[in-house]
Amino acid sequence: MKKGRKAGEKMTSDEKITRKLLAFIGQCPTAFHTVDSIRQILEKHGYRECPEEESWGLEAGGKYFVTRNDSSLIAFRIPERKDGREVADFTGYMIAASHSDSPAFRIKANPEMKSAGAYVRLNVERYGGMLIAPWFDRPLSVAGRIIIKEGNHFRTKLVNIDRDLVMIPNVAIHMNREANDGMHYNVQTDVLPVLGGETAEGAFAELIAEAAGVPKEQIAGDDLFLYARVPGTIWGANREFVSSGHLDDLQCTYGDLMGFVESGEKAVSAPDAADAATISEDVSEDASQASGFAIPVLAVFDNEEVGSGTKQGADSTFLQDTLARIGQELGLTEEDQRRKLASSFMVSADNAHAVHPNAEGKADPVNRPRMNHGIVIKYSANQKYTTDAYSAALFRAIAETAGETCQDFTNRSDMVGGSTLGNISNAHVSVNTVDIGLPQLAMHSPYETAGVHDTGALIRVMKVFFSSALKAEGRGRFSLI
């Protein structure tokens, strides 16, 4: 275990990284804001956006990204060869996938509802498999995207009412003596947030328009969600834990992103601690050549929390389409592309369950991940996770090269676990895949807990991953280059 910082000691490098993670999360109340924040970071480091509806014109040495629905993003680099060989001689794709969404309450159409002659509430519905109880009695607000109509033209604008706006109040213990004996929440009646008193009628549309800086009459559509306003914090006797909203899965998304960006940098200036977009100092002098024969690919999908079955989810053609267009622009035939995929590797990164201090019995008797003890490799006999002997061995080798350790996770044999990106994405792009995550507590709560060391560990491992290549050698043999 990596030790935290005691009182009077200097801030560790991993604590600095965690503070940047919290700054990043603070900019990302919804999946739309997450992709916009990633876009800004990539553009800062020389990546060019390639709209799906346009020709891309890829070039050797180029850095690119493509978005879909403003809530999913795929970034990639085309290696620049210095040995005179063709760019199309690359071995395969090194892909890391994570997701941009988190469980939340979505604002329904025509949301205002009067209550008790004294309040205006907002009509909401659940998005994803959430823990409901932690949403009570804490300041919340609203963020998402709106569609603005200007004549026959429509444009998207992000919106965030950046103040404490609504709250879901609990019923007092005096009126519900069984509250501590277990609660069943009716989402239609028990968890509607209060917007204001009786004079707040009609205020919601005005507030959204004001935050967007447009007349409310021009708003033609919206995708809006509640989010918790409690800021992230580092805590514990030795500052070893971090708590925040959206750790699942923005902790993995940020780790993948920083590993991807850093692996493509030749040199990096000293970071600004206040800037979440900056990256750490320990970058090799010529990491842009370290990707060797592989094309590094960063994928961030939306809608994982509701099954991924959307045009922008892992169960869509987004990754397949993007890889196909890369291959076509590099002059690959369909057979060439299949050969590249046979020597490709994917890391499906979605946070994992740490053993719980008050519920040890919920964990497997043997495989019990702990925060700050290494990246978790996830296994499932029913293939809810894609990890097998090959992919686990390959990922462990990459982690060891980065100087990091791994832990193992399996569910209790009498409990059904969740699913994630790997097996869903593999139905469209079938490559060797390992499912990993960073250990955390309170998954799917609006305020989750993880380890301060673990984000830095993932960044270091993903730098090595994106600087590597996999070569299939037949009959179950592979080499890491």
In short:
The protein is α/β, with parallel strands linked by helices and 481 residues long.
Layout of strands and helices, then pairs:
Layout: H1 13-26, H2 31-44, E1 48-49, E2 63-68, E3 72-77, E4 93-99, E5 104-115, E6 119-127, E7 140-150, E8 153-160, E9 194-197, H3 203-212, E10 219-228, E11 233-235, E12 241-244, H4 247-263, E13 295-301, H5 318-329, H6 334-342, E14 345-349, E15 352-353, E16 375-378, H7 389-401, E17 406-409, H8 421-426, E18 432-437, E19 439-441, E20 448-451, H9 452-466, E21 470-474, E22 477-480
Parallel strand pairs: 1-2, 4-13, 4-14, 14-18, 15-19, 16-17
Antiparallel strand pairs: 2-3, 3-13, 5-6, 6-9, 7-8, 7-10, 11-12, 12-20, 16-18, 19-20, 21-22
Structural write-up:
- The structure is a single chain.
- The chain is of the alpha/beta class and 481 residues long.
- It has nine helices and 22 strands.
- The strands form five sheets. The protein has a nine-stranded mixed β-sheet, with helices on both faces. Strands 11-12-20-19-15 form a five-stranded mixed β-sheet.
- Strand 2 and strand 3 (72-77) form a beta hairpin.
- Helix 1 (13-26) packs across helix 9 and helix 7 (389-401) packs across helix 9 (452-466).
- The two termini are 29 Å apart.
- The model is unreliable at 267-292 (pLDDT under 50).
* Portion of residues within helices: 10-25%
Across the major sheet, the strand order is 1-2-3-13-4-14-18-16-17
Q: What is the makeup of the main sheet? A: 9 strands, mixed
| Helix vs. strand class | alpha/beta
Quaternary structure of the protein: single chain
Shape: globular
Number of helices: 9
**Which percent range describes the beta-strand content?**
25-35%
Low-confidence stretches: 267-292
